[in-house]
Amino acid sequence: MPHETSRPEAAFVLLVLQATFWAMAGLSALPFVLGGEVFMLALGAVSIALAGGTAWLGIGVVRRRRWARRLTVILEWVTLVASVLLLASPVGANKGPVALLVNLALPLAVILLLRGRRMRAVFGITPKAAR
Amino acid sequence: MYDIAASHAIGLIAGLLMLPMALALVRFSAAHRGLPVTTQVAVVLMAISGAIHLGLVSHHLVTDPITSVLFFFNGLAFIGLAVLVRRRWWRFESSALIVLTVLAYLVYVVAGLEGPDQVGLTTKLIELTALGMILVPARQERRKRDRACYWALLAAGLPMLSVLSGTSLWITDLAHPSARHVHAGAVLQSTNAVPTHAQQDAATLLYEDTVAALEPYQDWHNAWAAGYRPGGPDNLPSTHWMNQAYVKAGYVMDPKHPQGLVYANSHHGPVLLGAMFQMPRLDEFGPDPGGPLTAWHQHENICFTPFGLEFSLMTPFAICPIGAIDISAPPMLHVWVVDNPTGPFAVDIDAKLVAAIDRS
After folding, report:
1. Tell me, what's the ipTM?
2. How many CB atoms lie within 10 A of CB B356?
3. pTM higher than 0.90, yes or no?
4. Domain boundaries, chain A
């Protein structure tokens, strides 16, 4: 039974955590707006919007929606590549265990949970040869 | 909060050592093999958290035996539940253990019994993830009647506990920075506690030399001509003007070539507040002739955005707002040429003084 797997549910949990962390980052920008940093308002709003979008993707993943899986994998690849570039650049980005878990391990885990032939079948994606 | 306490590193090592054992458990144990992936992930994470707690027992045994005993039983409980996953009330017991462990940690940190560090944060992150994996209803579960309840707990409870953990730790860290953290994101150079006479004389000499060298820059036009340019928004009380040629040249605490100048944004134009010496590389503090009087500081874990050259602070979960990146600035030393109440070499200039100059 291809549908009897809880990997999408596991991905959902990680997406909920990721959305929470982005929402926190968005909210943390707002006090700086009061200090005169007006662009932080836009950054905070974008972060909160992304948090909402991530939660929405999580719901789609649990419901086995094809678009949700595709968008989630794209989002996590973008997050992963951006994090790797940031960590590799000499700007002094934090390389502590929390940063590595949240910015590298979490998106990588979501990608691994949603990839593979079996998961494509779970999301109703038929192999090219079978079409 | 962004450092690993030396005495806690053993906890991380114990957690890493537990990882292959926990993976072997879910792979080869008959009781674990047929479980949903979510439960298997929870088992692995709980085993790691248990190992971290057990790893911390020995250090706390001397300084804080009660905490040590709590760590021991906490660690055993985590590993025990990771093994006994077929128990009837496993989901309830595991969730309760994780929630109580997270809340107990927050009480310890807020009460000042424990300082938040990367090991504590990592452990809470692992436990929060495990909690989500325990609560989320898997498709192949036989019992279906509690699914709505678990979805509600997951959707509301997990984000709430995560936000509570993050904000509690952050507020505590900001309100009670360690001795080397002057303010959020600024780490001071280690020095002797009380300046010697020689250090006082050296600090005075540095101050006099810098004040004399900065005299031309009282007129901001001279600073502009010398290559200094303002950075960041001009609607803030003060602005750092940086000279990229001096930054690249790598002058070290040269009063004639300070890498930055700080101007108050007054009604009648920029008013010189002081100079800023900056080292070329991260973690390389500059010469410290005045001991504690002239200690350098390094800004760490700052969220910087090129949009408007603005800053905010990285969250405890190591995330910046989208559009900002986490950076650290090489060590710097300010020399204030105005009468700063907190001292001529203080990390920050008094906000009331700047506001008064701005109004002038």
Report:
1. 0.94
2. 13
3. no
4. 7-123
